[in-house]
Amino acid sequence: MSTIVMSVNAGSSSLKFQVFRMPEEEVLTQGNIERIGLEDSIFGITVNGKKLKETQHIANHGEAVKILMDKLMELKIVNDLNDIDAIGHRIVQGGSYFDHSVKVDEDVVSKVDELAALAPLHNPAALVGYRAFADALPDCVHTFVFDTAFFQTMPPENYIYPLPYEMYLTDKIRRYGAHGTSHKYLTHRLAEIQNKPIDEMNIITCHLGGGASIAAVKNGRAFKISMGFTPLGGIMMGTRCGDIDPAIIVYLFRKYHYTPDELDDVLNKKSGVLGISGISSDTRDVEAAARDGNKRAILTFDIYVSRVVETIAGYYGLMGGADAIVFTAGIGENSDFIRRNVCKRLKCIGVEFSDQRNKEMRGREGLISTDESKMKVYVIPTNEELMIARDAYKVWKHEHNVE
Is residue 147 flagged as an active site residue? Predict the structure, then answer.
């Protein structure tokens, strides 16, 4: 029996969606609603390979969901809204509460709201999106799929910070990570490609986009993740600084009397690729400037590559070896320039790199190391929406006692 499942990723002013027929995993449609709350909101949807785009005023997420529901009916994606059986909602921060996806109830909503301080740009927006869909489709099985759930298998030495232990016990300060749905997808997809059991996967997965994280996966389970207490930690990102000496915060506070919000703005929105280059948070713009000899653009890439190499090599040692490295997300899938510069510096851990394969692998799935390489290197476009749909379908089956 086919089931219609929707994957939803709600941002503060956006709403991404995909509709699947399960268990076939057939994509019926996908799209994005952008600039919600502004006069020139954009509604985009793809049906049968054809992209449709409309500009109109969409006041809030409730209105965005109504427009989406009407469009699904108009385009005959569904004949009736009750045909939508399940919705999976992406939630960035699930804390220590959730190690798997769960059906939504008021207790789950309360916990996600409680954790909003750890993901202030994501959790509140996700709850707004959920409530809008819950109002529109109250009989649907709603599932929360947590970015942090995949990392609940990390050993304590990899998630406890060397702060007073009471801060972990009382305030739950620990490493949580992010992008777990993506890292989980990469692990499962590479197991399919290599025809290996999940519990034999010892790999390093690199989700390199505007936000970026690197994970060590040992025996198919998360072992370490670069992002920390919040998505600010880890490697350098588009506008985020990643790991820095925490005394810098104290120094800036004392010297310039920054407020917490001002410091948060500097670290999250004015640092990283944008902060070093002074050009853009988009690596494509910075790469163009670097090719023209811009010194700060060149420095930006030197720092970026150095941070990625340091993390990959460190995780290799931490796990006692690995069999493969995987690149994904906007930069990981499309920047042959960054992949080449990272891989050339990883010969020490067995990477033999193929320039030709790397150049051909733009937004495509495939191997970019040589056949002789001890450490295999792959590009795999991520598919978080499919992972969300799979989990939502699993919860729906459980609710309906379907084998």
Answer: yes
